[in-house]
Specification:
globular; 5-stranded antiparallel beta sheet; 14 strands; Arc Repressor Mutant, subunit A; 11 helices; alpha+beta; Alpha-Beta Plaits
């Protein structure tokens, strides 16, 4: 497969489709492939899968088996064997860096683009979901209350809201990095993790995943493995919350503190802690000459919804959205 003629994001999806076909002895169709892709962190619909399958067919890597679907060819197996996992490692941090650059939100005017997460729920669960969100945000932790409901059939970025479902955009904590950059403070998102809290005070990170070494967003990994304890953290003060750490230059700490206070006042993000120069923050290592800034992840609110038993599919760090499209819960 000529990587020089295919966009890198398309290339990753093609390899993953080959992997899914290789794992199945029987032919499978586009709908099932799309479901498997989404489970693995690729936001793609049935139509998108068909487009990618046409590319694979043209290159002799897959073939149609009547109406049953596709199978991988011998040539496709060879291509898959040669595909390196490294092709996907670092994909998340590259996406994050682009979205940070595209963030234009201005703290003074309250206008501009922000980064959002996208969650998908059943329409029948909307009222219960809103109840839980209100409880978590207003009775628990200061997660951003700004959300947007997205109708079925809408395509956000490359996510399609299926029939009978509703999309829900929530503020992504990486927006904080975009705001810092717009104020002349370069930040480097380093870790996503599970943060233990007790008496509503952060204790330490229990788990950490380095963004630059991951092919899937850490928050998606933690949520899929049901490692959060957001509702207990809200109801009892003790639990496990999603959080991330970015490093900023030591020389920028004083100015960053002012910016982050404004971020909190604007209810854009919930700042957990600003560390001391070169020192670990809540058990997370920080490089020399840097200071760590820990922020609660925007996905916490939807993690709480999932903990309550509601079926939720969440795509963290999903897309850029004009802040005026979001409404306060």
């Amino acid at each position: 497969m000529a990587t020089t003629t295919i966009d890198s994001q398309v290339q990753r999806k093609l390899i993953e489709i080959l992997r899914i076909l290789h794992e199945n002895k029987d032919p499978i169709g586009a709908r099932l492939i799309a479901d498997r892709m989404n489970e693995r962190g690729y936001a793609i619909g049935e139509r998108g899968v068909r487009y990618h399958l046409r590319i694979l067919d043209e290159r002799g890597l897959t073939k149609r088996q009547g109406y049953d679907g596709r199978v991988i060819t011998e040539r496709g197996v060879h291509e898959l064997d040669n595909a390196l996992v490294g092709d996907r490692v670092g994909f998340i941090i590259n996406r994050i860096e682009k979205l940070i650059y595209d963030t234009t939100y201005d703290l003074k005017t309250g206008q501009g683009n922000v980064i959002t997460n996208t969650s998908i729920i059943d329409k029948n669960d909307v009222d219960k979901t809103m109840e839980i969100l209100s409880h978590v945000i207003y009775d628990g932790y200061s997660f951003s209350p700004y959300i947007k409901l997205i109708d079925e059939g809408t395509v956000t970025s490359d996510i399609e809201i299926p029939e009978g479902k509703l999309g829900l955009a929530t503020m992504c904590s990486i927006t904080v990095d975009g705001i810092l950059l717009n104020n002349g403070i370069p930040g480097n998102p380093k870790y996503g993790g599970i943060l233990e809290v007790n008496n509503k005070k952060p204790l330490c990170f229990e788990e950490l995943i380095v963004y630059s070494g991951s092919s899937i967003d850490p928050m998606r990994i933690f949520m899929s493995k049901k490692m959060t304890g957001v509702l207990p953290a809200v109801d009892t003060g003790s639990g496990r919350l999603l959080a991330n750490l970015r490093e900023i230059p030591v020389s920028a700490v004083s100015e960053a503190e002012k910016v982050l206070r404004s971020v909190t006042d604007a209810m854009i993000g919930s700042i957990v802690e600003i560390g001391k120069p070169g020192k670990s923050v809540l058990n997370a290592p920080v490089d020399a000459g840097k200071a760590g800034v820990v922020v609660y992840a925007g996905t916490n609110a939807m993690a709480a919804v999932e903990e309550s038993g509601i079926d939720v599919v969440t795509y963290p760090i999903s897309t850029i959205m004009d802040f005026k499209e979001l409404k306060k819960l």
